[in-house]
Design goal:
Structural class: alpha/beta
Strand content: 15-25%
CATH class of the largest domain: Alpha Beta
Distance between the termini: 48 Å
Largest sheet: 6 strands, mixed
Number of strands: 14
Shape: globular
CATH architecture of the largest domain: 3-Layer(aba) Sandwich
Bound molecules: pyridoxal-5'-phosphate
Strand order of the largest sheet: 3-4-14-9-10-13
Number of domains: 2
CATH topology of the largest domain: Rossmann fold
Radius of gyration: 20 Å
Length: 406
């Protein structure tokens, strides 16, 4: 086992947006000014008590923070090991953690005087959070979404349109998240003067990975004080699913310097770790650059991006957030994966014994917890990030579980 490096998280990323050798700024020249403006606006806003107060107010009044830290008593009993707690980001407005970041960035857009918002979405969760925030703040909203994802998540498409957003289908390539990001970037290059791009995960070029992480730190900050309130001590282990990595880094960040706390990120194992059948970047991914950042990417020998697959659209992406690559190298965070089959089982089990229907993304973290908790001591604590609710997934789950169309 690699010895755990003690890492000074406050020094990361450096000024050019690097987490060690990962991250950075890999964008067309035309976007440099916009990214610079965003970095400066964010740096100022962070220090402005009025901005911070406004952000906290909207997080409370509109999004529904703080979220509960819930003791999953029956799941704990049925597994006979660690005490399992869920951090209930699924209870937030629009159904997932995404809204934390969206509110933060929408307020920055207002500060920059940009009245038009664009965003990409995979499962639709980032799209609906963005559409809702734009409605609330009176901003124009265009969402790019792969045609395949639009079919998988028709309900979310309609919800976005109800909130007044224009949803533009993307027909390039695999017609999923990666292509939607490319289209959003193309739009941004053209309309950069009046448009802010609300990127939905801890990905892309600097300052996004850092900024998105900061907006989600509230998850870990709340969880830490809540577990002290309930148990009087730190948890033994944290786990979270990892798409781009925003809900995971949001939970983990404020525990990074607590060396007794283990952290596990769970990637999408899809139909198994074979080329084109999964989206687990740490299972066969290589160092590369994708959509603005240097990180682990699923690619072939020639650097062509490989096809990815996951039962959950929100984890179906060929690159992982650069900060995760850094902490993996440092041995501070470990990564594993859950297969579609394990995920569907966790999805049902959690619904049946806790009365909580998890998002298929979050069910990856639960699938890990189902395996891990029985191996842990009875008085130990395993804290699972319930990143979102499963309402958006019930139709797809019914189909996959052989129950036909709802
Ligand atoms: C988008 C999404 C994810 C994946 O994104 P991260 O940036 O890795 O958090 C996970 N869970 C839910 C519910 C989502 O909507």
């Amino acid at each position: 086992m690699i010895t755990k490096m003690s890492t000074d998280r406050s020094a990361l990323p450096d000024e050019s947006g690097h987490f060690g050798s990962y991250g950075g700024l890999y964008v067309p020249e035309t976007l440099m000014t916009a990214l610079q403006e965003l970095s400066e606006t964010y740096a100022e806003a962070k220090k402005d008590p009025a901005y911070v107060e406004q952000l906290n107010w909207h997080l409370k009044e509109f999004a529904g923070r703080p979220t509960e830290l819930y003791f999953a008593e029956r799941m704990t009993e049925s597994l006979g090991g660690a005490k399992i707690y869920f951090k209930r980001e699924d209870l937030l407005h629009t159904g997932a953690h995404k809204i934390n970041n969206v509110i933060g960035q929408a307020l920055l857009a207002l500060r920059m005087g940009k009245k038009r918002i664009i965003a990409e979405t995979g499962a639709g969760q980032h799209g609906i959070a963005t559409a809702a925030a734009c409605a609330k703040f009176g901003l124009e909203c265009v969402i790019y979404m792969g045609r395949v994802d639009m079919e998988r998540q028709a309900l979310n498409v309609y919800r976005m349109r109800l909130c007044g957003a224009e949803v533009r289908p993307v027909d390039a390539g695999q017609k999923t998240l990666k292509e939607a990001v490319s289209e959003a970037m193309r739009d941004w290059v053209t309309n950069v003067r009046n448009t802010h791009y609300i990127l939905g995960s801890a990905l892309g070029s600097h300052p996004y990975p850092m900024m998105v992480r900061d907006f989600h730190r509230i998850i870990g900050q709340e969880a830490k004080s809540q577990i002290f309130e309930k148990e009087g001590r730190l948890p033994d282990e944290l786990c979270a699913c990892v798409g781009g990595g925003s809900n995971a880094i949001g939970l983990f960040y404020d525990f990074l310097e607590d060396e007794s706390v283990q952290m596990i990120g769970v990637e999408a194992g899809g139909r198994g770790i074979e080329q084109g059948e999964h989206a687990a970047r740490f299972q066969g991914g290589k160092l590369g650059v994708l959509q603005g950042t240097k990180t682990y990417v699923l690619q072939n020998e020639d650097g062509q991006i490989e096809l990815t697959h996951s039962v959950s659209a929100g984890l179906d992406y060929a690159a992982i957030g650069p900060e995760h690559a850094f902490y993996r190298d440092a041995g501070r965070i470990d990564y594993t994966y859950a297969t579609d089959e394990e995920v569907l089982e966790a999805f049902q089990k959690c619904s049946q014994i806790e009365g909580i229907i998890p998002a298929l993304e979050s069910a990856h973290a639960i699938a890990y917890a189902l395996k891990r908790a029985p191996e842990m001591e009875k008085d130990s604590i395993l804290l699972v990030n319930m990143s979102g609710r499963g309402d958006k997934d019930v139709q797809q789950a019914a189909k996959l579980l052989g129950e036909g169309d709802l």
